[in-house]
Design goal:
Layout (H helix, E strand, L loop, with lengths): L9 H12 L6 H8 L5 H13 L3 E6 L2 E6 L3 H14 L4 H10 L3 H14 L20
Antiparallel strand pairs: 1-2
């Protein structure tokens, strides 16, 4: 029987999803069992270690093994992947422009709202520095 190749980052998302469904810290063996299939224990540990390096999981030693806990959600993991891809390109502006122009209208509105809410507040005309009566700034 042929193995189905997972998409890039898909396994990380599945492992993180399993951790988030757990009621608390769990072992790599628990994650392996939860994901089922023919996934090797060493593969699960490798993925967990990669997620630890990305700061989306934490681990604590329990005896000879570790207990793993999620510190972020799958959305944060996807955002980290997007950021890594963007950081690998020379022309960031072209990549971002291409990304934005390919967004469906609903996603474009969400992105606009998020960008606006993340923007630093602009000084209002009342709080802008104005010269006082002697020509000096307030």
């Amino acid at each position: 029987m042929a193995r189905v190749r997972r998409g890039q980052g898909e396994l990380e998302g599945q492992v993180l999803g399993a951790l988030r469904e757990a009621g608390g810290p769990v072992t790599a063996a628990w994650v392996q069992e939860r994901l089922g299939g023919d996934l090797a224990y060493t593969t699960v540990v490798t993925i967990l270690t990669r997620l630890l390096a990305k700061d989306v999981v934490a681990r604590e030693r329990q005896g000879r093994s570790f207990l793993w806990t999620p510190t972020a959600d799958v959305a944060r993991l996807a955002a980290l992947r997007m950021r890594r891809l963007l950081d690998g390109e020379r022309d960031r502006e072209a990549v971002l422009a291409s990304f934005v122009t390919a967004l469906p209208p609903g996603d474009e509105q969400v992105l606009r709202a998020l960008l606006e809410s993340a923007a630093p507040p602009r000084p209002s005309s009342r709080s802008a520095s104005r010269p006082n009566h002697d020509g000096q700034d307030d």
